[in-house]
Amino acid sequence: GAVVSQHPSWVICKSGTSVKIECRSLDFQATTMFWYRQFPKQSLMLMATSNEGSKATYEQGVEKDKFLINHASLTLSTLTVTSAHPEDSSFYICSARTQAKNIQYFGAGTRLSVL
Amino acid sequence: GQNIDQPTEMTATEGAIVQINCTYQTSGFNGLFWYQQHAGEAPTFLSYNVLDGLEEKGRFSSFLSRSKGYSYLLLKELQMKDSASYLCAVRGFSGGYNKLIFGAGTRLAVHP
Question: In the beta sheet, which residues pair with residue B24?
């Protein structure tokens, strides 16, 4: 299957700081990438859909000014959690879809802990 | 509205067969997916059904009935490493565009 690389895999930060998470499609071009959040023992919740060269589409209840998404190229999307607070601690997972197969592949995830 | 239901937990014995069911109600339908997720890791793709019928891939098979809004994932010759959560996801239409909607997942425990 297609490979999606996500970095960093784990980050600990102080409350009030910003954290950037990168998501790269390594062997295919992804015009659309997705950002999910998952709390313990819960399923994946879609936060936003990132389209290359245009603004991201956010799900209801997700603050666009807090979760900044940039999709500058066909292989890279970034999620920046601004002014992070302890309630933002979660498992963030990016996903990219291959146009050829209509299948979404997931990155390894980033575990964010805000102290 | 969008709704995907699957059992919360299941247990099975090593070497046995287990079937995980999923029912869904979504606005629009553009495919049903099954993913495996081990604790603390990202989901890995298992199968994709867009037409009715059975898709077989090694020890894993997935079935879809669009008229019934029903799918199942069949795991054969269970191994201990199959202990994981299995996520049923449907690509449906919501908020103006297609998106993948996940069920809560079924935690499968395989015992010796």
Answer: B4
- Contact at CB, A106 and B44, closer than 8 angstroms: yes
Residue A55 has pLDDT above 90, yes or no: no
pLDDT value at residue B109: 97
Q: Is the Cβ of B97 closer than 8 Å to some Cβ of chain A?
A: yes
- Whether B53 contacts B71, CB under 8 Å: no
**SS3 state at B82:** helix
How many Cα atoms are found within 13 Å in the side-chain-facing hemisphere of A85? 3
Q: How far apart (Å, rounded) are the C-alpha atoms in residues A15 and A86?
A: 7
* Number of CB atoms found within 10 A of residue B77's CB: 11
Tell me, yes or no, if A42 comes closer than 8 A to chain B by beta carbon. yes
